[in-house]
């Protein structure tokens, strides 16, 4: 499908709807009969569930907080 710039400006929402509903795969916008832009639907990228992705793969040691004072001294020269 090819439209001129004026038609693209006035019918922009309609053109997007044509792409979204897959009635058109691309729309060419022309100026003075010469194609200058091709509009296509932006490809969807699959999203993954990143939160909780490592659930069950790691475990905290029982003495996790036992080194807090030692670490604080390494960084700040004193305890928390």
Look at the helices and sheets and give the structural class.
alpha+beta
| Number of E strands | 3
**Count of separate DSSP helical elements:** 3
**Radius of gyration from the alpha-carbon trace, in angstroms:** 29 Å
DSSP strand content: 15-25%
- The helix/strand order is EHHEEH
Structural notes for this entry:
By secondary structure, the protein is α+β, with helices and mostly antiparallel strands. The protein has a domain at 2-40. Helices cover 30% and strands 20% of the residues. The protein has helices spanning 5-10, 12-20, 68-76, and strands spanning 2-4, 26-31, 34-40. It has a three-stranded mixed beta sheet with strand order 1-2-3. The N and C termini lie far apart (68 Å). The model has no long low-confidence stretch (mean pLDDT 88).
Lay out the secondary structure.
Blueprint: E1 2-4, H1 5-10, H2 12-20, E2 26-31, E3 34-40, H3 68-76
Parallel strand pairs: 1-2
Antiparallel strand pairs: 2-3
Key terms:
3-stranded mixed sheet; alpha+beta; 3 strands; elongated; 80 residues
